[in-house]
Batch of 2 targets.
Target 1
Amino acid sequence: MAALIDLRSDTVTQPTAGMRDAMAAAPLGDDVFGDDPSVNALQEALAERLGFEAALFFASGTQSNLCALMSHCQRGDEYIVGQFAHTYRWEGGGAAVLGSIQPQPLNHQPDGSLSLADIEANIKPDDFHFARTRLLTLENTIRGQVLPLDYLAQASALALKHGLKRHLDGARLFNAAVVGAGVGGDPYAAARAITQHFDSVSVCFSKGLGAPVGSVLCGSAALIQQARRWRKMVGGGMRQAGLLAAAAHYALDHQVARLAEDHALAQRLASGLQGIEALAVEAPQSNIVFVGVKPEAVERAAGLLPHLKSRGVLATGIYQLRFVTHLDVDAAGIDRAVAAVREYFA
Ligand SMILES: *Cc1c(COP(=O)(O)O)cnc(C)c1O
């Protein structure tokens, strides 16, 4: 049987041969003592490349975002966040449950941004009736969409004007950076063009970058010191974590620019699905393709995912299908996925 084409998420990737070699060769130590040279090297490399003083390695993006929010906000503080942002909707309510931090969710604009007017209207005056608005949290990419740089500059200026800190959930920061850099551009410089507008940034290595585990939070030395305390408290102090950090470091050095290939495959998939009567295909900006099922075709589409599975193609979604490209799929796999969808609707 042909290999599975797994388009459920970019988290499904296997470590590459080069990455496994880097892991096997990594010098290790006890990272709770700060002794793991591979963890330290990763933290220093990312902080430097993104223009921050310090960085901290985490077991997951959820843990990294949580510790960032808890470092910026105290009990009774509030963060402004998108309705569909990971830090609001997809992290189990951790900021509220564990941090006693109140979210102020806002609706998204069609491009994924939060309108500046909405942000400003939801910053509470200094009055004891209200939670203290302390933080603006954005996400980039969001739903695979890249937030414009001028928007980031404006949102950042607005936050600063009101004394808010600015956190970026950059789980897919490098997807946004590679789009911003364009062909032949420097993705690390493009990443800094984004991160310069934030006090802290969380980057996932277990998504498109292809590492098995891990996220890194960047910020000021003081913020990272605070985050280290929270990380220990939530059980995220790991020992010979350099085994994992070496994989992430390998990804940072070797698997950033190649994200452009994932984006090209997403385009290929979207074009292949164009013209299927039942479907409304959104033009992808990075590595995620959303495909709506037209209302009149919802019943007919009910068996699509099982059909795809029977053809060795995995995707997610019900009314809106989601296909995510990554380093373990190639053009032939995308063409097989397209053929399987076409076969179903034929
Ligand atoms: C995946 C993801 C995270 C972190 O998820 P973990 O599974 O906890 O690593 C955070 N934000 C966004 C936008 C994500 O896609």
Target 2
Amino acid sequence: MTTLALPTDLLPADGRFGSGPSSIRPAQSATLAAVGGTLMGTSHRQAPVKSLIARVRAGLRELLAVPEGYEVVLGNGGSTFFWDAATFGLIRERSQHVASGEFGTKFATAATRAPFLAEPQVVRSEPGTLAVPEPAEGVDAYAWPQNETSTGVVAPVHRVADDALMLVDATSAAGAVVTDLSQTDAYYFAPQKAFGSDGGLWLAVLSPAALARIEELGERWVPESLSLAAAVSNSRRDQTLNTPAIATLVLLVEQIDWMLEHGGIEFAAGRSAASAEILYSWAESREYTDPFVQQAEARSPVVGTIDFAEEVDATQVCTVLRENGVVDTEPYRKLGRNQIRVGMYPSVDPADVQALTACVDYVVERL
Ligand SMILES: *Cc1c(COP(=O)(O)O)cnc(C)c1O
């Protein structure tokens, strides 16, 4: 394939548009380098690393306006491990799951396979459309993704029932979408999306009701690595059950501080919203593109999915972009659509999203 060189004045300053792992700001990497000879390579059972975890917990409390009585808990393994931990430790008997994309479906599958739970209810809809949980008898936990990263659909977050837990997968929304956490019981996420850190960790803001459920289900056998009770007791001491990636924590703290210094969640969400406005209005204004998500309110401010007309090969566009250092605009692999997917987390400069659209125009005109 012939390479098409993009004019350098068209290129974004930072060409990383991944939906996860996502772009890491240079200041974060600089902080990491700065602690290379102090924090890195030291014990996670001693004060320096424990105080890092304390900063993560306190910083998130402020950033996300965590309600009184809720606790910030963390553990190793990422959001995928949290699904398994929640299957053991938060679902009493029957859950309901919204599954209109990859991530919602994965938690539904985990609960379906658990031999000690009743068959969960699964609310499905076509990828790219919004589905919401529906109040139902006998459901003790409702689970849905706030942002379905595979399709670019954002969902509202509010309680569907009073006597059940609301388990919200905020992996790609936390830190980028203003949310009232009092509407949730487990608001969980991982640091490699809006927080521009590395993967391998899960974080969860747990309500008093969720903490009580964990205690109530304490008799159920659970592998220690998936025990939420163990995660809670370790987190209260600013530790994790087993060794965490210190670099992940350093990058995460740096991002939380950056958001707080610039005005908190409104600032962070504002950056993403500004990027999204640029991307979707561009897609609507071009003959050969359309936002994949038809319903405007359901279009994600953090992960934009843009369909291409048949005559334009999105794979080819992504390839040319990649050759020019503009990376990770490929769509979610299993969705199989002729589209691009653009990560617009707070770290991404809206001006770079603008530049990306100009690059796509340039490539499409010349293909
Ligand atoms: C990325 C993502 C996950 C998976 O996170 P891991 O940390 O890789 O397990 C889960 N849910 C959503 C919504 C995501 O975007």
